[in-house]
Write a structure and sequence with these properties.
Two copies of one chain form a homodimer.
Chain A lengths: L5 E6 L3 E7 L2 H6 L7 E3 L2 H10 L4 E4 L2 H11 L4 E4 L6 H11 L4 E2 L10 E8 L5 E8 L11 H5 L1 E7 L6 H16 L3 E5 L10 H9 L5 E5 H8 L4 H8 L5 E5 L5 E5 L2 E5 L13 H14 L4 H15 L11 H4 L3
Parallel strand pairs in A: 1-5, 1-9, 2-7, 3-8, 5-6, 9-10, 10-11, 11-12
Antiparallel strand pairs in A: 2-4, 7-8, 12-13, 13-14
Helix pairs in contact in A: 3-10, 8-9, 10-11
Chain lengths: 328, 328
């Protein structure tokens, strides 16, 4: 086993966020569930976009946001995800590579456009996400750079990509390659479980030993185990993964590893503007500290610091220099 | 003469801003003049974009930003400008119409893509603009809706569009239609004078009585008259226009009308993030108050309040509800 020359490679949605403020009445009138993610067809997305207020655009994608955070913290990272050969795809690619993230997945020249996530931010800073995945769900196992995966300490997989068959196959193949090379596989539930019928497959994959580090928030962890008690859910899942990381919003975060549980409080944030990307940046900080050999509590603290930055402004990509916020 | 049923119609660049933070060293290394605007070819824009950091996108265009501000203040406004039939054009159109701005210029199906402005924001909140105008400079007099112009109290023209022949002809034709209907014509210098050879034409157009309300900052006003003394420049220009409005950044603003000069201080801003759009939103506030029949000092105060909002965040489109900041 050679030593890794990349810290993390991620496989995830390659998406541009389209972020608009709205009132609670807009969410209610359209029957949306505040704080959730739903998948839209192209026609549904066009209709919602037409009804939305003026927006700002910013590259997104759950695992891609995490890679942006890791690159901002100075780690060597790569991203595998599918865009189309269009203007939004160009924007997504620019925003990855300009951060130093290796992003070499060739854009699709035929097929659907680059994916968009229409994000409605209410005055309470909650985000309601409406994703038109477009090209992003056209990712196939052929897009994997196997040598890159073998060379990365961690392969990071995004729950949102679990649904469609080909990206799911790509992620399972990537996990196999990573484990074959003695590397770590991480998975973020990233609200993927709110999609009907997805829970059982994700749970079976986790129970099969595919995942070493599992990230989720309280709701996701409870939903994954079908339980209402967080401690019961944790007890179930800690048997299946080496490291379980649970974020709890304003209540902080906890990690369980080798029977040991560590918990931290959330840092104070002067003004929470938009919670989009909080979980993604938490994962970035955690993985960065982990790759640099830090203790579990330091990993949680680094995650919380990155999450605190991202919720202080619109958009899920860091605006401040993360290296000044998190000393690795 | 019928009474107007539209407050303002603007003719200007239809552009999406691509905004990235950078250090002063990046500006210096590329030989850029901080705080200025330069025109780029497509190849130059591609090269600069590749060198820039990660960006956020937000609809822009000087007069278009002003119309966004006026719509946010509750006025009835329209915008005439040229986009292409592409994703950035769709974003620009959405951001106009979702604000209630009438925007009916058909997108070009052939020719260059929708224009982009690559904006570099330094830690001192100065913005250095690099514009690849694309489809925006393909505007022709045929795109004018003459009835719309006749029906608007004010026709607002953008200096950036003065250069290319067809948009210039469109603006001159619009001024003729507006004056023929007894309406007011406003012009914003919007740094257009930094483009070599443009000063003489703009000055001759103003001296010919084409403009009723002229907006400019101190530097532009001085440059337009070729003078180094602001008071001398003002004295020259107040003979040519009915109303002269001069913004002075942190030093406030002044207006001269009918021999009377009114001056205001700039409001305090807690943290200036990005000065892009300050002049555009000043014009919005001023014109809104003017359309509502306010006194000259109230017009300046409204302009300053809108400018203060826009410089408190990235991007040249308002994030706060302007109606709560400016009571008309």
């Amino acid at each position: 086993m050679t030593s890794p020359n990349l810290d993390v490679v991620a496989i995830g949605d390659a998406i541009v966020d389209v972020i608009a403020s709205c009132d609670d009445s807009f969410i209610a009138a359209r029957g949306l569930t505040k704080g959730s993610m739903q998948l839209l067809t192209t026609a549904e997305a066009d209709e919602l976009y037409a009804a939305m207020g003026p927006a700002r655009e910013s590259s997104g994608g759950s695992a891609a946001n995490s890679m942006a955070g890791l690159a901002g913290l100075g780690l060597d990272v790569a991203f595998i995800g599918q865009v189309a050969n269009d203007q939004l795809g160009e924007i997504f690619g620019h925003d990855m590579t300009s951060l130093g993230v290796r992003f070499e997945t060739a854009p699709l020249s035929d097929g659907p456009p680059t994916g968009r996530c229409l994000i409605l931010v209410t005055p309470d800073a909650q985000r309601t996400m409406n994703t038109s995945p477009g090209a992003s769900h056209e990712l196939t196992p052929d897009a994997l750079d196997e040598d890159m995966i073998r060379s990365a300490s961690v392969t990071f997989l995004e729950g949102y990509l679990w649904g469609p068959e080909r990206p799911r196959a790509a992620m399972l193949r990537a996990a196999e390659i990573a484990h074959g090379a003695g590397r770590t596989v991480a998975f973020t539930l990233s609200e993927s479980l709110c999609i009907p019928g997805r829970r059982e497959g994700v749970r079976a994959m986790i129970d099969a030993g595919t995942i070493d580090i599992l990230f989720g928030n309280e709701d996701e962890i409870r939903h994954l185990t079908g339980g209402s008690d967080l401690n019961g859910s944790i007890a179930e899942l800690e048997r299946a993964v080496k490291t379980l990381v649970v974020t709890k919003g304003a209540d902080g975060a906890l990690a369980v590893e080798g029977g040991r549980r560590v918990e931290i409080a959330a840092p104070a944030v002067a003004r929470i503007v938009d919670t989009t990307g909080a979980g993604d940046l938490f994962a970035a900080g955690f993985l960065a500290a982990r790759c640099r050999g830090r203790e579990l509590d330091a990993c949680l603290t680094a995650g919380a610091a990155c999450a605190a930055e991202i919720i202080s402004h619109f958009g899920a990509r860091p605006e401040k220099d993360l290296k000044t916020l998190v000393k690795l």
